[in-house]
Amino acid sequence: MNSSATSLSAAQKRPYIVVLVLAILVNIAGIGIKYFTDDPSLYSMLARTMAQSNNFADIIYHGKDWLDKPHFPFWMAALSFKVFGINTIAYKLPALLFFLMSVVYTYKLARKFYDQETALIAILILLTAQHVLMSNTDVRAEPYIMGLLMGAVYHFYKVKERFSLIDILLASLFTACAVMTKGIYLLIPIGSAIIGDYLFKKDLKNLFHLKWLLAFILVAIFTLPEIYTLYIQFDLHPEKVVFGKTGISGIHWFLWDSQFGRFNNNSFIKNTHGSIFFFLHTLLWAFAPWMLLFYYAIFRHIRKMVKGVVLPEYITISGSVVMLLIFSISKFQLPFYTNILFPFFAIITAGFVREVFNSNRNLFFTIAQYSISGLLIVIVIVLNFIFAPERLTIFLPLCILLAGITLYIYKNTASKQRALFLFTCCVGLWVNAYLMSVVYPTLLTFKGDLHAAEYINQHHPNDEVIAAFNVPNAFEFYTHQPVTFMDLNEAAKHTNALILINDDQKAELQKNNTPFELVKAFDNYPNENMTLPFIIKAKRMTTLNHFFLVRLGSTAK
Predict the structure, then answer these.
(1) How many alpha carbons lie under 13 Å from residue 107 in its C-beta half-sphere?
(2) CA-CA distance, 50 to 68, in Å (whole number)?
(3) Are 442 and 386 in contact (CB under 8 A)?
(4) pLDDT in tens, 268-323
């Protein structure tokens, strides 16, 4: 199997293209869904402050210096806000474009070493992986990293093959932007991918070519905007209080504390939890419905390498395994961390799937994918009847659509294994279409901060708005007029201002006999992840707390 293999015929390609179009549509379908977790709300607020102040050097949160993430994704979102206005779609759009960039480069990288069908399989696996679809609705930094990382690896590999000025410039620029998105640890998967390919191909001589020194210098030059902005915001002002301390160096934080300090658990932000097996079991759902194939494929990949079998490439195994091990050893472990490695995982898995197609038989593939697809279908059917039975008018058309596309696939795909692969893709897309059309909208009906913002925009568009502390960032982002944050004692001095408080703050007002007028109460689900009691509709109300819009002071009723 190599890049010179015969391409698919038009008839063979058609089912792949149909599913590919559906996959892209589902991935971008969540672009307008409002925030139901806090990170996108926070990042939107930081980018909005940049856009409105025209200050792209400082990262400011509620008037204070903020030091937790590098600038690049905030620059992209702020520029999008400048062009398209301050809204949810404008925040998510650049991230989705970078994700689509990762799809393009995953295809191009796979096509370097394998045939066209393998490359198509790889991008379909990437587009239908569960946590990719979720992350393209609940947008953080990972879509940016995926695109930049894959672009850097692809162009660096072209430099490895034959020096080209445009390739080394693009690779270095993408690498620098990745570093300015999440930190210099991203040099690890990029570097290990290329170095590993040299090592396993026993080409040590060319590993020390001067072109790699040039690449290092270019990456350093392209990263200077981040160094400069951190210098002028923090290093020039040692009197600023950050993490409760003065004399904090933004440059030192960027080069060490932001990532390696966390990995070593000796930075300003620490975590006492973590398991080396966290990502192994997290991938069971995060890389669904392909997780079993991936585990088997990577086992076969490594076994071939141990036996000395020459493989077409070592980029994917080198780029993914080293970083996966580092993630696993680190105490900082969140499910979306491994998303950046999914393009590598997809290519590794696609190689195995293509072998199954060639052999036209593989009992493991058949049992695994029918079992996973069937299980996902059953889970969604059960979920609908306990979570949102009133949404049957949405659920039934989704089921009919899945049945229709399944019938099309099996009628127009000659190989049963190919049909099963495409069917599995469609099941993954169907699950997430259900999440976007039923689950997320239902969850959003119980986000009191969002409804408080909408109520103010509609009924009190000119009132002064104050939020007591512990109010989610989404409230501030979606409220049209400026929001001022202060404690209740300060807020009481603002006669007739609308104030958003939670249950505890309302109880405090009542305990202190502070007069207030209740303007509106809002049910609120306080968690980001859905708990079992919330999923069961009959028990949902027991999981809620509340937000209240009130007026304080002597004028209150």
Answers:
(1) 12
(2) 16
(3) no
(4) 555 556 678 788 889 999 999 999 999 999 999 999 999 999 999 999 999 999 99
